[in-house]
Structure prediction request, 295 residues.
Amino acid sequence: MKHATTPDIPQQAFDWYDEYAHGGIDRRTFMARLGRLAVAGLTIGMITDALLPDYALAEQVSFNDPDIRATYLAFDSPQGYGEGRGYLVQPAGEGRFPAVLVVHENRGLNPYIMDVARRLAKQGYLALAPDALYTLGGYPGNDDDGRALQQSLERPKIEQDFIAAARTLKAHERSSGKLGVVGFCFGGYISNLLAAVMADTVDAAVPFYGTPASGELVRQVRGPLLLQFAALDERVNATWPDYEAALKASQADYQAFTYPDVHHGFHNDSTARYNEAAAELAWTRTLDFFAKHLA
Prediction:
């Protein structure tokens, strides 16, 4: 899907949005900076309409598609926030399926991530997309509030919730026992983290524009790992040389792709950062990777 009316937005606006979305500046500062760009036919409204998500654009697989069954799954997380819940989507029909944990960005389980889970189920995977905001009432319906809620949580407990979700999914009665994980932004970080701390549990991990696990944890990664980067994403890309050196030193099984001329978030089809060609290529590579390692 495309943003047919997306204006020609300067690179600065994308950089400021990334800074805002990751807590570097507040909304007032972000909007004030955008005001400097409201020239030459652009208005603040046009810029924000393009940068901020429109989730009506993100539905590629309907929740009532006859090929899938969608519900919710609660799970215990004693080292996290006690209990977690995720959006569970499975292929219609009987049998067991390879499982994939889908990890959202830094704003909770929004409609785009739910659609990613449905896309995976449509391809024959048992997909679980947990919501880190569950104990706070769940994703609040907009990204600004979701981001604030997620920032209010303790990162170690969030991490433990996703570890608990991964264990629950791998052991699920409809799971074949093979487990993959794919995540975006914050979810890319969680994907890298699980590849390190659950190296014997995770059979394949695909972080999209995610930073590595901290400290010595990176040395625990064995793979297989498929890393997806955006060429214009300076913040995340700055972490890659050291991460790659650690992966090489550990003789980890990994592949990395950097997509030219695209922004952080290029797979998210609800904003102007979306790049259809790069997103489709990255997703094809993801599906091929899971087919190889989770079959």
User: Anything to note?
Assistant: The first strand starts at residue 68 and ends at 77. The mean pLDDT is 92. The chain has two domains: 11-51, 67-294.
